[in-house]
Design a protein that fits this description.
Layout (H helix, E strand, L loop, with lengths): L2 H4 L6 E2 L4 E5 L4 E6 L2 E4 L2 H7 L8 H11 L4 H18 L2 E2 L1
Antiparallel strand pairs: 1-5, 2-3, 3-4
Helix pairs in contact: 2-4, 3-4
Length: 94
């Protein structure tokens, strides 16, 4: 089964024990959780800030492609990979 295809219609949202926010001192988006924090790269931050439980992965990809034109395939591949990894780490729920 192709994971990228199977997640297109899910609507990911942040798991309840994580807090997502911009941290000026880190100059990055971060995920806070009881044991510490995770500093996200810019791509991960752009994806995660759209994971509100209402947008599907395909909607998120479309928004990113509109915001960052010219890299459609790269954006789709990166978003699929990020959502898959973030779900596996427990950051996102569907």
């Amino acid at each position: 089964m192709d994971t990228a295809i199977s997640i297109d219609n899910v609507c990911p949202r942040l798991a309840p024990h994580y807090v997502f926010r911009w941290e000026a001192s880190q100059d990055a988006y971060i995920l806070l959780y009881p044991e510490g924090l995770i500093k996200l790269n810019p791509s991960a931050g752009e994806i995660l800030k759209r994971c509100n439980g209402e947008r599907s992965v395909s909607d998120i990809i479309a928004e990113l492609q509109a915001a960052f034109p010219g890299k459609d395939a790269e954006i789709a591949e990166g978003a699929h990979a990020f959502v898959t990894v973030a779900r596996g780490k427990g950051w996102l729920r569907v």
